Amino acid sequence: MGLQSRHLLGLEGVSKDDIHLILDNAVSFKEILKRPIPKVPTLRGKTVLNLFYEASTRTRISFELAEKRLSADTVNFSKTGSSVAKGETLKDTIRNIEAMNIDMVVVRHAAAGVPLFLTKCVDAAIINAGDGMHEHPTQALLDMMTLREKYGKLGGLKVAILGDVAHSRVARSNIFGLLTMGAEVMVCGPKTLMPYGIDEMGVEVSYSVDAALEWADVINILRIQLERQGKGLFPSIREYHTEFGVTKKRLEKMDKVITIMHPGPINRGVELDSDIADSENSVILKQVTNGVAVRMAVLYLLSGNEGGEESS
Ligand code: CP
Q: Whose Cα sits closest to atom 4 in ligand 1?
């Protein structure tokens, strides 16, 4: 049994069964990653292009590691140093690379909709590694894997997403995925950082961090995306930290344990205190670890190889 779509462009509209399938496969791949030789021949003979037009540390490295653990051949494209500087279009770039025989493309781009556009340019399977303010589906999948690992389920879990919701593809993918899996979702941040139409997405909305902490089992804290914002959405970084920062003082007032998540990169001292990021209730590095297993699962399920070569 494979996924219903041959691409992963987002989690909007992805079924509960498909999310379960990805997470279950990720659990199997995580076991493989613990072996002395953490490598399987599943994608031998397949070639994956990592097409990154925007900066990345975690997503790019974990996709590349996932491809290598699955024995795929990988090629990496960065905008810097490419012929984009000479004016080559995205369509020409992808069609020229595909002419060298590419099976799958992992793409990150600052413009929403680029992964969908690529599905119309080439035959390769397309995986969205983050497109503008639209979606970042593998991030939400690894977040859900981390929560399922900790709580044994996603249904009924109360997850508050805090911060710059308006500019966050991570927030959108988490909202779609978590609601599909039966979790309750709250978003919290300044009104100026809430997207238009958030009320219609099936989430609770709060403008008080203390109220969100009171409500939540889990908080997923978002970075202030200064690179995507216009000016003047909040008075200053210092004021943002005072009003919306997740601080030790705020958490100590809560009579319960709250799981701390962050997709990274973290702005320490802005959206959360440094010691909270490193505290025992933080699963931030577990999220990163699970990113490799989740991306192995997605690559495998979209490769057309399921049920074919031995996967473990
Ligand atoms: N979470 C995430 O997407 O991190 P990178 O931008 O480093 O890939």
A: 58
